[in-house]
Please model this.
Amino acid sequence: MFRSKIIKVEDFRTIEIFDLPTQALEVKNKIIQSLSKVVNKYSEYEEVADYVKKGDLVTLNLASATEKFNKKSLPVVVGSNLFNSSFEEQIVNMIPNQMELIKLNGDIIETIVTKIERKKIPELTDELIREENIDGVLTVEDYKDYLFDTIVSQQVSEVAEKVIDRVMEISEFEISKEDINRLFEGDVSKMTFLSQEEGKVLEEMTEMEIGQRIGEPSLAAFEVEYKNNRYPNYLKRALIGLSIAQDDNVTFNESTYESSFESSEYYKNYSLSESKKLFPYFNYLTYSYSAYAHEKIAGFFKEAFEQNKLLVK
Model:
């Protein structure tokens, strides 16, 4: 197991990062935006005869002493600021075939609205939802549930990362150099195996090849960066996960290690011995306990959302 130790671990439940009302409002707004995207895909512009409003698509005839403002049948979406924000504000409330003199940066533009078209947004129906082709989502309520689960999962995943970072910051650890070296050796094992698959020798690869493989200009640079910065944090995360897993009576071991290869699509083309070179046991333990911390903490906050679903939907 780990030579590293956790001297004092902060209970993640005491970390004051998650504010349910604020998070719920963010989720609700994202759900509304997603629902709007669906109906907007099926929206159409229809001609109206009242007056220009923000969001309207207007067709304009412009005349001016300045060449760039001499335009016929110019389409402008009012309020989009794609033409000119000041100009667009000044044509609000104009009526069809009305002529106005618009002042813009010293230019006087004779402006006539020849047509006003307004976006007609359809009602959100089960039929429109089925057009999204989401497996198992057939109704508007299905889609709202799908959005809730998807958005909340993303939201609590982000919260979990912030909580883990904070727990790491205020907890006390004793990180073993032996563990750091074991992680490095595991990564070298993986890189060596993948290089051999390509008919290359890791130590003889060019700087570009090394960079593509490991994200650092050389194996020596990789060793410095990971041993000094990344591996200690990997181990801290894993130790937090280990402390949570022990409370839950959950263990990752040789048995779960080998079964993880059997259930993985990635490793199905490799033998067991090859898989172990790609993902050595100690690296598996570090990853698994780290992932358990994330999963458990994210699940804790997701449960808070589930219990207060009415705040969102």
